[in-house]
Design brief:
Layout: H1 2-7, H2 11-27, H3 35-57, H4 64-82
Helix pairs in contact: 3-4
Length: 84
């Protein structure tokens, strides 16, 4: 959606992005964990994927603090998901 909104890309790109964002929200409702735990897991994975995406696409290498922060997030998600 960002490309459509900010960079004058075709409307179909914005509509496709909107549909993907909608599905991203709906998928979490089908998880076996509680809704909050499912979103916490998505959040942790999203942070790591955002760092990797920026590194790959924008060629911006994450610094040590960003990696440490990502690891802290994943540890937090693990604590939340492993507690039954």
């Amino acid at each position: 959606m960002w490309q459509w909104l900010r960079n004058d890309k075709p409307i179909w790109l914005g509509l496709g992005g909107g549909i993907i964002l909608f599905l991203y929200g709906v998928v979490a409702t089908f998880q076996v964990f509680s809704f909050g735990k499912a979103y916490a897991a998505y959040g942790g994975v999203f942070i790591v994927m955002a760092l990797l995406w920026g590194w790959w696409v924008d060629k911006k290498t994450p610094d040590l603090n960003e990696w440490i922060g990502a690891v802290i997030c994943l540890v937090g998600v693990s604590v939340m998901l492993l507690k039954r």
